[in-house]
């Protein structure tokens, strides 16, 4: 049974997430024309809003908005361009009664997004930029500190580790130390091992197999396995949208290990997977369902 003795509560503006009570689902809203999975589908603000609203109806506990692709080899864009993509959609999506996370590595973009109603930051570089650490401390918002080798342009060029689980954990805890030194409260820190970011398929599988190692660090853990390339390396050549069953397996394994937040594209399906996996791990139904005696 996953260990959830420690009670984690994440305060996202007016939203209070008790992530130790059950697995929480973060729904992905890509505002990019070049995302690996659904790039270009939601670049229009109205389309992005309708997609976000559908994810909330399907059970998303958090929405994660990203306006710069972090797929392997993706080119960097300017803060101006990122804000041009992000802000019109954010101004619509903030009407929804759900915490909004912004997936960005730029402090300038993060500051504007927080001023415009975002509640949380998701930084795939693990807060490498001191300005991002200072900003997160100033705004007192939750931050996802993710592990990545290099940057999206270089991360998949023969990534190597001595011991991937321990190396990732060590790097994340070093980032946590810097974050806390900058004034970020421990209660606002979430760790993400960065599935697919500077890892081979084998690295990803081992990290998922040993997700409980990261949980022992004393911080809530987020994992984002959704539609990732390692699934196709296990199952054979599949387009991203066809990797739903592989994603389901990774989500179930993550929940069984005790992971708190799952970042996914297919919210309705993965919410069901997470609920059943959690019920099995606990040996009981979630209290909110009332469906089991």
Keywords:
single chain, 293 residues, alpha/beta, eight-stranded parallel β-sheet, 10 helices
Structure explained in plain terms:
The chain has 293 residues and is an alpha/beta fold. The protein has one domain (10-282): Dihydropteroate synthase-like (TIM Barrel). Helix content is 40%, strand content 14%. The protein contains 10 helices and 10 strands. The protein has helices at 45-57, 79-93, 107-115, 130-139, 164-181, 201-209, 211-215, 229-235, 244-257, 267-282, and strands at 10-12, 15-17, 24-30, 62-66, 100-103, 120-123, 143-146, 189-192, 222-223, 261-264. The strands form 2 sheets. The protein has an 8-stranded parallel beta sheet. A two-stranded antiparallel sheet has the order 1-2. Strand 6 (120-123), helix 4 (130-139) and strand 7 (143-146) form a beta-alpha-beta unit. Helix 1 (45-57) packs across helix 2 (79-93) and helix 6 packs across helix 8. The longest helix is centred in the middle third of the chain and has 18 residues, at 164-181. It is globular, with a radius of gyration of 18 Å.
């Amino acid at each position: 049974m996953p260990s959830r003795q420690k009670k984690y509560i994440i305060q996202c503006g007016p939203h209070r997430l008790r992530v130790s009570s059950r697995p929480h689902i973060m729904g992905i809203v890509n505002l990019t024309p070049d995302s690996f999975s659904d790039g270009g589908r939601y670049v229009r603000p109205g389309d992005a809003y309708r997609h976000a609203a559908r994810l909330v109806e399907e059970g998303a506990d958090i929405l994660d908005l990203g306006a710069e692709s972090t797929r392997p080899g993706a080119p960097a864009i300017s803060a101006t361009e990122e804000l041009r993509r992000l802000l019109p959609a954010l101004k619509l999506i903030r009407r929804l009664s759900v915490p909004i996370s912004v997936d960005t590595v730029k402090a300038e973009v993060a500051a504007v997004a927080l001023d415009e109603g975002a509640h949380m930051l998701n930084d795939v570089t693990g807060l490498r930029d001191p300005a991002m650490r200072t900003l997160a401390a100033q705004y007192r918002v939750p931050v996802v500190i993710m592990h990545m080798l290099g940057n999206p342009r270089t991360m998949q060029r023969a990534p190597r580790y001595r011991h991937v689980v321990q190396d990732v954990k060590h790097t994340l805890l070093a980032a946590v130390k810097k974050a806390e030194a900058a004034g970020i409260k421990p209660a606002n820190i979430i760790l993400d091992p960065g599935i697919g970011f500077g890892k081979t398929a084998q690295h990803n599988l081992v990290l998922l197999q040993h997700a409980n190692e990261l949980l022992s660090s004393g911080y809530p853990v987020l994992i984002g396995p959704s539609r990732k390339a390692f699934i196709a390396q296990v199952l054979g050549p599949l387009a991203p949208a066809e990797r739903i069953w592989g994603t389901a397996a990774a989500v179930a394994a993550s929940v069984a290990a005790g992971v708190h937040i799952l970042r996914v594209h297919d919210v309705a399906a993965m919410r069901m997977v997470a609920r059943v996996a959690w019920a099995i791990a606990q040996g009981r139904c979630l209290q909110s369902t009332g469906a089991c005696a």
